[in-house]
């Protein structure tokens, strides 16, 4: 017989800290306060320029995917490329492709019709993120950004790093319990 037990572990109560004055926060040292530092925002980073360039990159990506420019699409990726096949049953079932040749060998599995439709219909103006990683929606297409040179005159290099096909709407191939649908039994 296997018995699982739960033991309680008691931590000493945290030391009471007198109220810290405005502009300070409690320190890790009991009874001390430290200055609350303001959030620093890099005013020299050209956010508008990055946004315009990633939109241009995404439009070129859309164009190459819709034109079935497989070699051009493969060149727009950052390897290892994290992907899912459209038919993978779970969001956690992702894999890595390490080269353009590996992507080209499974291109149709990665760029299923619904994935192509998603890419074609996504508004490039809605690509969002931060200075090093941008994405569509909730990360269906992840775009890595490398900043080249010193900002504010820097340039950017973009590469698609993630294709999260499983979370893109897909044709119904199974019911809610994972059973394959029978012809004429579609929801």
Helix content: 10-25%
Distance between the termini: 47 Å
Structural class: alpha+beta
- Overall pLDDT, averaged? 79
The total count of strands amounts to 8
Strand content: 15-25%
Rg = 24 Å
Strand/helix succession? EEHHEEHHHEEEE
- Runs in which pLDDT lies below 50 for 5 or more consecutive residues are 1-17
Report the total helices.
5
Q: What is the overall shape? A: elongated
Strand order of the largest sheet: 4-3-8-7-6-5
Main sheet characteristics: 6 strands, mixed
Structure notes:
This protein is α+β, with helices and mostly antiparallel strands. It contains 5 helices and 8 strands, in the order E-E-H-H-E-E-H-H-H-E-E-E-E. The strands form 2 sheets. Strands 4-3-8-7-6-5 form a 6-stranded mixed beta sheet. A two-stranded antiparallel sheet has the order 1-2. Helix 1 (47-66) runs antiparallel to helix 5. The chain starts with 23 loop residues before the first strand and ends in a 24-residue tail after the last strand.
Helix and strand arrangement:
Blueprint: E1 24-26, E2 33-35, H1 47-66, H2 70-75, E3 77-83, E4 95-97, H3 100-105, H4 107-110, H5 113-121, E5 128-129, E6 133-135, E7 141-148, E8 155-163
Parallel strand pairs: 3-8
Antiparallel strand pairs: 1-2, 3-4, 5-6, 6-7, 7-8
Helix pairs in contact: 1-5
């Amino acid at each position: 017989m296997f018995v699982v037990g739960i033991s309680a572990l008691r931590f000493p109560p945290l030391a009471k800290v007198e109220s810290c004055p405005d502009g300070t926060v409690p320190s890790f040292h009991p009874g001390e306060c430290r200055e609350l530092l303001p959030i620093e925002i890099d005013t020299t980073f050209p956010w508008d320029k990055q946004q315009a360039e990633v939109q241009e990159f995404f439009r070129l990506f859309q164009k190459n995917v819709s034109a079935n420019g497989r070699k051009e699409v493969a060149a727009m990726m950052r390897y290892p490329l994290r992907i899912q096949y459209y038919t993978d049953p779970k969001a956690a079932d992702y894999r890595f492709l390490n080269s353009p040749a590996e992507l080209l060998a499974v291109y149709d599995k990665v760029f299923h019709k619904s994935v192509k439709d998603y890419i074609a219909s996504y508004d490039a103006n809605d690509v969002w993120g931060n200075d090093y990683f941008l994405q569509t929606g909730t990360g269906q297409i992840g775009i890595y950004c490398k900043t080249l040179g010193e900002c504010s005159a820097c340039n950017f290099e973009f590469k698609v790093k993630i294709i999260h096909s499983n979370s893109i709407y897909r044709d119904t191939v199974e019911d809610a319990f994972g059973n394959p649908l029978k012809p004429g039994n579609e929801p």
